[in-house]
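tool=predict chain=A
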Amino acid sequence: MDLDLSTNDKKRRYLDEDGSSEEGSRRQPTTLEEIQRDEDVWLSDGNIVIIGQNVAFRVHKSVLALHSEVFRDLFLVSTPASNPGSLAGPTETIDGCAVIKVPDNPNDLRRLFLVLSCGKNYYFRDDLRQTVPFDVLDSLIRMGHKYCIRSVLCNALSRLQKYYSNDLSTWLDDARRAQYVAAPEPQSAIQTINLLATLTNTPSLLPAAFLTCCSHIEAVITDTPDGPDAPSLSTEDVLRVINGRAALTRAAVDRIVGMTTTGPSKQCHGDYRCTHAGLSALAA
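tool=predict ok
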C-alpha cells in the first residue's frame, strides 16, 4: 500500500473533486435559510460551520486543522480579512461562526466529522471488534484521501483489505471476513474496482473484488444501476469478469475430469478405495 497524500493538487481542486457517490453532491443552497443543522455533529462550543449541500456541521476549527493540511489551508484562504471574495463572505455566519461550503455529500462529511470531532470508533467497541458497513469505509477512504487525513484513510483501508483479502485462506473464510465488513454485493466489489483500489493505489484489493463479481456475474451483467451515480463496471471490466468466470469454470472442469481419469497413486494399496474416495469427493 503506497498512499500518496500530497496536498498540492487538492488545495487547488477540492471544490471540483468531491469524490461523492451520490447524485447532486455539487449542488449548494443559495441562502443560509435553506440549511439544516446536523443532529449528530453540531457542537455547541464549535467555532466553524462546514456546509455540505444543505446540511451544516458545527465543529472545532483547530481539530480539523490539526488533522488535515487541506482544511488548515482552506480556513486560511476562506478568512474574509485575507480573501473578501472567498466562500465564507463577511456576512455568512451561523450562531456567530464563520461558514465554509464544500461540495461533499453530507453523509460523507458526517462520518468523517464523527471520527475527527466526536471520537467515533467504527472499528471497536469496548475492545470488541465491530462489523463496519461498506458504505462507511467507502466514505472514510474517499474523505480521508481528499482531505489528506492519513489516520482516517489508513484505518478504513486496512479494514477493507481484511475483507477483500489477497490471501486465499483468508478469502475462503466467509464467516471471518463478514466479521470485519458488511458489504452488499456486487455493489461493494464494483465500487472497490471502479474507485477505491485506484484512488488509494491498492491493487491487492482487485483480485478478490473481481472474484466476487465472478460469483455474482448475472447481477453484474444484467442489473440496471439505481441512479446515474450508482456503481457499474465499465465494458472492459465486465469482459474481465466474463473471461475470468469462464477460466474458473474450465479449471473446475479440468479438476473434476482429472479426479475421475487419473490412476491411483503408486503408494495406494487398494485401487477400489482410491476410486471410491475420488467419487465421494465429487459427490460432496
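The longest helix spans residues 235-261. The CA atoms of residues 256 and 271 lie 18 Å apart.
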